[in-house]
Structure formats: C-alpha cells, structure tokens
C-alpha cells in the first residue's frame, strides 16, 4: 500500500511539474491585430502590421510584433513580398521583477497565390524567415519556413467566414515548429476595410494555446498621394 501511494504521489508530482513548465497553457489569451495593404502604384503596395498578444484576454503581456514589407503585385492573384519584423517577447506567464524580454529582428520573403472555387476564395501563402534572436546574455540565428492555406466564404455583401491552417517548419533542429488553426466571422465595414473576430488554436510540440483574435484590416489606395500635380 505504501509503495502504491508513493507511486501515485510521484505521478501527481510529475504531472504538476510538466504543467509548471508550460505556464499559461490553460488560460484563454488574446491577440489584437491590425493589417494594412497600402497601394502606392499599379504594381506596388506597402504592407503594415501590428500585433499585441496577451497570455490572458486583456492582461499579462506575451508579445508585440511590428511588421512591414514591400509587395509586388504580379497580377490580381499573385503577390511577392520582402520585408522586416521586430518582435518583443515575454516568454513566461508569470511576471518577474527585472526580467528581460527577448528581442527578435526578422527578415522574410513571401509569395501569395489566390484562386476561387465556386464561392470559396482560397489563398496560399509561402514564407521564408531569417530570425535574429537576442535573449540578453545569448544570441541565436534561426531559419524557418511557413505555409498557410486560407479559405474565405462570403455569406452576404457584409458578412463572411474566414478559416486558415498554417504550418511552421524549422530549418534546423526539430522539424516541426508549430501549427495554427483559425476560424473567424468577418464584417465588411467599407470597400477596403473589415473586422474579424475569431479563435486560434496554436499547437506546439509540447503545448497547445487557445487564443481569441480581434483583427482590423484596412487597405487604402494611396496612389493619389504620389501623383504629380498637373500644371
């Protein structure tokens, strides 16, 4: 009996230790995001993006991501992009006094293909990333590939559904990085803006995180600002 009790206590302790190594996994966090495609000419546009991620819905900072890029529109269904991102990350659920966040400078190359099947709008996004990480006392350089397939279903002229699945592949060490499964309801506010409210299931090799998402998309046409004034 004593041996059985010791065994049970050992299992409970082991499970609690595993849970402690994955703080915040059971919390419902949130990502608040802005995305913009700013048209500056017939073929060129500027990508702008800001994301603020929290371990809990409105508190406990996890990550800030700022990203920009230059898009070349090959045609209406193909876009090539090169860009840069800065990421500030708190890797722990608990706040520690004097704790230093990790910083990342990231360069990325991207290609998007779009197609339509019946009423379904599909988007395939292929991305390569070169990641320069600073953990304070150490630095690291990593490379990663990402593939996202996205499907949008218009319901009316105003409402739509949006789904995607994105796979992250490490180009060093363990092959699997993470997988993001997303579903949302979208509302078209104007011809070039919409809001999406959805849910993200973010799976890593040793943890799964549930995240609410609120995203604002605004895609202004800025070509008029760059035209020369006629005499």
Detailed description of the structure:
This protein is mainly beta. The protein has a single domain (2-221), classed as Porin. It has 1 helix and 11 strands; from the N terminus they run H-E-E-E-E-E-E-E-E-E-E-E. The longest helix has 19 residues, at 2-20. It is globular and about 50 Å long. The termini are far apart. Residues 1-21 have low confidence and may be disordered. Residues 1-20 form the signal peptide.
Task: Give the secondary structure arrangement, pairings included.
Elements: H1 2-20, E1 28-39, E2 44-54, E3 61-75, E4 78-89, E5 102-117, E6 120-134, E7 139-154, E8 159-170, E9 176-190, E10 193-204, E11 208-218
Parallel strand pairs: 1-11
Antiparallel strand pairs: 1-2, 2-3, 3-4, 4-5, 5-6, 6-7, 7-8, 8-9, 9-10, 10-11
InterPro entries: DUF2490
Pfam families: DUF2490
Organism: Flagellimonas okinawensis
Counted up, domains total 1
Give me the secondary-structure category. Answer: mainly beta
Write down the overall mean pLDDT. Answer: 88
Individual helix count: 1
Name of the top-level CATH class:
Mainly Beta
Order of helices and strands: HEEEEEEEEEEE
**What is the CATH topology classification name?**
Porin
CATH architecture identity:
Beta Barrel
Gyration radius over CA: 21 Å
Count the E strands: 11
Unreliable stretches (pLDDT < 50, length at least 5) are: 1-21
Q: Main beta sheet: strand number and arrangement?
A: 11 strands, mixed, barrel
Global outline: globular
Signal peptide: 1-20
Keywords: Signal
InterPro entries: DUF2490
Protein name: DUF2490 domain-containing protein
């Amino acid at each position: 009996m004593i041996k059985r009790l010791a065994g049970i206590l050992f299992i409970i302790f082991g499970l609690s230790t595993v849970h402690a190594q994955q703080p915040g996994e059971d919390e419902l966090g949130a990502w608040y995001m802005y995305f913009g495609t700013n048209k500056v000419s017939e073929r060129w546009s500027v990508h702008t993006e800001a994301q603020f991620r929290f371990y809990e819905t409105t508190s406990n900072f996890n990550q800030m991501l700022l990203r920009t890029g230059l898009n070349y529109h090959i045609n209406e269904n193909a876009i090539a992009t090169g860009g840069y991102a800065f990421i500030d990350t708190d890797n722990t659920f608990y706040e520690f006094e004097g704790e230093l966040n990790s910083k990342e400078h990231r360069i990325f190359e991207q290609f998007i293909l779009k197609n339509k099947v019946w009423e379904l709008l599909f988007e395939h996004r292929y991305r390569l990333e070169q990641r320069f990480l600073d953990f304070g006392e150490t630095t690291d350089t990593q490379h990663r590939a990402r593939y996202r397939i996205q499907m949008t279903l218009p319901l009316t002229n105003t409402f739509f559904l949006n789904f995607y699945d994105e796979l992250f592949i490490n180009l060093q060490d363990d092959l699997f990085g993470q997988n993001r499964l997303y579903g949302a309801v979208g509302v078209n506010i104007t011809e070039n803006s919409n809001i999406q409210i959805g849910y993200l299931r973010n799976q890593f090799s040793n943890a799964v995180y549930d995240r609410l998402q609120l995203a604002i998309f605004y895609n202004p046409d800025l070509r008029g600002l760059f035209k020369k004034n006629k005499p």
